[in-house]
Amino acid sequence: MATTTATNRKKVTTSLSLPTRPNEVPDSLSAYHIMIFGRKGSGKTTLLANMPKALVFMFEFGRRNLAINQVPPNAPEGEEQLRLTWPNFLEYRDLFIESDKYTTAVIDTHDRCYEACFKYVCSELGIKHPNDLEYGKAWDAIKTEFEASLLAMIEAPGKSVAFISHAKVREYKSFDGSTYERVEPTASPSSQGIINTTCDFIFMLDFVEGHRVLTIRDHSNMTLTACGVEGNVFLDPAGVPLNRIQLTDNPKEGWQTLVDAFDNKLWDFDRGEPVRRRAKSLPRKKRKKSI
To answer: Cβ(30)–Cβ(51) under 8 Å?
Structure first.
């Protein structure tokens, strides 16, 4: 059906049609946009770097101990390691979008990525801090640059983005005046917006009694999580929603463990596998007849 609309006093004809069926929900975890946050050393980078066709955009400083596909690549021993600046990031981003070899971009970390954008925009505007420019113009410029640059990756056909962040405890005030604390990413409110609007899943990775545990859902709201994808995913084999799962001690196996949880093959860390009765009960002892 052709419709005519007036734009700047010019007639523009656009071909439109209404949907005939609902959207198809991806059945592969790697097709979604994900954020994983948690304490340092919990294995976040290795977990996401083992996603299929993953390329890590390494904004963290001095990370040489991981055998992963990353940009910029590790410098040869004895040479200075290059840092991922914002202009470099944009160049690598365009190569990633055009590449058939890589389909998932891992941003490590989201905090450092925003920091690089922050410094770049301030430098371009000739200021040291956004507050040096009146009416919030610099803050708006940083937000626009940051979100537009990431959306180019997020919206690219056949591509997905996974974000990494550290964890912090933030205090909130309820309507009744009481306060409560919640564990959430260290990302600043200015940069967290794009995570909240684009990520299908937000998980926290931490150590619990010496075990590496991933929080998928937290109904108490003590931990920021998101698991709002429609469909029967992240359930235990009995169909009960998973809240937390245990990852293996080998972080390289973490991604497959997460996929198994997505495919409803794992039991909850806290509940465990239920004790099942035997199919055939043991023979009962014969009772003596009373005299």
So the answer is: yes
pLDDT tens series, the chain, 291 aa: 454 544 455 555 568 999 998 888 888 999 999 999 998 888 999 999 999 999 999 998 766 677 889 999 877 777 777 789 999 999 999 999 999 999 999 999 999 999 999 999 999 999 999 999 888 899 999 999 999 999 999 999 999 999 999 999 999 888 888 898 999 999 888 898 899 999 999 999 999 998 999 999 998 989 999 987 767 899 999 999 999 999 987 867 899 999 999 999 999 999 988 875 444 444 554 544 444
**Are the C-beta atoms of residues 59 and 86 closer than 8 Å to each other?**
no
Q: Work out whether strand 211-215 and strand 244-247 pair parallel, antiparallel, or are unpaired.
A: antiparallel
CB 183 within 8 A of CB 224: yes
Cα–Cα distance, 57 to 274 (Å, whole number): 41
- One-letter identity of residue 267: W
Q: How far is CA 162 from the centre of its chain?
A: 5
Residue keyed to tokens 């040489």: 64
Token duo for residue 188: 């600043």
- Only one residue has tokens 């962040």, namely 165
Residue 143 tokens, joined:
């937000």
Q: Is 149 within 8 Å of 93 (Cβ atoms)?
A: yes
Where do the domains of the chain lie, and which CATH numbers do they carry? Answer: 28-204+222-228 (3.40.50)
